[in-house]
Amino acid sequence: MANKRINLDLSMLKDGAVQEDINREYKRVAENLDDPNADNRWRKLTIELKFKNDPDNEMVMMKTNVKSLLAPSESKTTLMMLGRNGMGNLEMNELRSSARGQTIIDTETGQLLDDKGEPLQGEPADATPIDYLKK
């Protein structure tokens, strides 16, 4: 095989530093693809090489830049309750039930919760569900 007159091996540039940059951005792309909260869009990995002659036109300076364009997280919408408490102070909380003032049951503990997901007053904090099938 004849000698190459122009040789460019990205893995060898700058003692492997360019390859490390490529690997780092490639990993970021893979993590973003695996993120269930990210939009299902195309991701992009860009390897940019810039060249510039020196004033004597004997040497060429090369500048590298490796970057990725990732998908953003999907936007999430929730319903907030806005009102004033008994002291007249403004409060805003996420509505955890489907309607203001509705009581919900925590499916893991069986505990009764208010519409903000807080335990009801007087409700024991460690309420365990009653197993009616237990013999």
Note the main attributes of this structure.
single chain; 135 residues; alpha+beta; two-stranded antiparallel ribbon; 25% strand; elongated
What can you see in these coordinates?
The structure is a single chain. The protein is an alpha+beta fold and 135 residues long. It is built from 1 helix and 6 strands, in the order αββββββ. It has a two-stranded antiparallel ribbon. A two-stranded antiparallel ribbon has the order 3-4.
Secondary structure topology:
Layout lengths: L16 H18 L9 E10 L6 E10 L10 E5 L5 E5 L9 E2 L6 E2 L22
Antiparallel strand pairs: 1-2, 3-4, 5-6
Average of pLDDT: 85
- End-to-end separation in angstroms reads 83 Å
DSSP helix fraction: 10-25%
Strand content: 25-35%
Number of strands: 6
- Rg over CA atoms, rounded to whole Å, is 30 Å
